[in-house]
Amino acid sequence: MSPNLKEAPDDFVTAYVGLGANLGDAQATLRAALSQMDRLAHTRLVSCSSFYRTEPIDSFGDDYINAVACLTTKLSPADLLSSLQEIETRYGRVRPAGVHNAPRTLDLDLLLYADLKSEDPELTLPHPRMKNRAFVLVPLFEIAPAGFASLDLLPDVLLPGVSGQRITCVTKALFLSPTERGGS
């Protein structure tokens, strides 16, 4: 992994994580994973989108439950990714050899880490397929409605391209941003 992905920032940075599951009690698993993310060292859960039911994309099995969480962290991108993978494993995530996008108990994808761009084979940022997936863009823009101009991630540009993908809100936002809570 490239050295800049292993360097911890001096101050807290904002990161966005995609959550998904389609095996077991997916909503309960996502809620538990959010709690686990909030307990990571030097990391705090700032907000989480609503939960959405979506059909599998490039996959099979039951519908997924998806969301996006906003974190602040002092962990390096590599350490945050490793911590997310440990949470996945704790909740029964397996990666069968030769099976891409298999049904899963929990999937945590590091979507964005500050405004970092990386083409590293172990961690591409922004996430390489997020621009094509309603299950990422709809919840992401719910909690970050202005988008991310520095990364060419703008809702008015990207959302029309995924409008044909089925996505239904099943649970309203569980965690509110400081602004929505009345803080700053």
Outline the structure in words.
- The protein is α+β, with helices and mostly antiparallel strands.
- It has helices at residues 3-6, 26-38, 77-90, 134-143, 155-158, 178-181; strands at 13-21, 43-48, 51-54, 64-73, 107-113, 118-120, 123-125, 167-171.
- The strands form 2 sheets. Strands 1, 2, 3, 4, 5 and 8 form a 6-stranded antiparallel sheet that branches. The protein has a two-stranded antiparallel ribbon with strand order 6-7.
- Strand 6 and strand 7 (123-125) form a beta hairpin.
Topology:
Blueprint: H1 3-6, E1 13-21, H2 26-38, E2 43-48, E3 51-54, E4 64-73, H3 77-90, E5 107-113, E6 118-120, E7 123-125, H4 134-143, H5 155-158, E8 167-171, H6 178-181
Antiparallel strand pairs: 1-4, 1-5, 2-4, 3-4, 3-8, 6-7
What descriptors fit this protein?
184 residues, alpha+beta, 6 helices
Give a brief rundown of this model:
The chain is of the alpha+beta class and 184 residues long. It is built from six helices and eight strands, in the order H-E-H-E-E-E-H-E-E-E-H-H-E-H.
> Number of helix segments?
6
Helices and strands, in N-to-C order? HEHEEEHEEEHHEH
Instruction: Indicate the proportion of strand residues.
Output: 25-35%
Mean pLDDT: 88
Q: What is the overall silhouette? A: globular
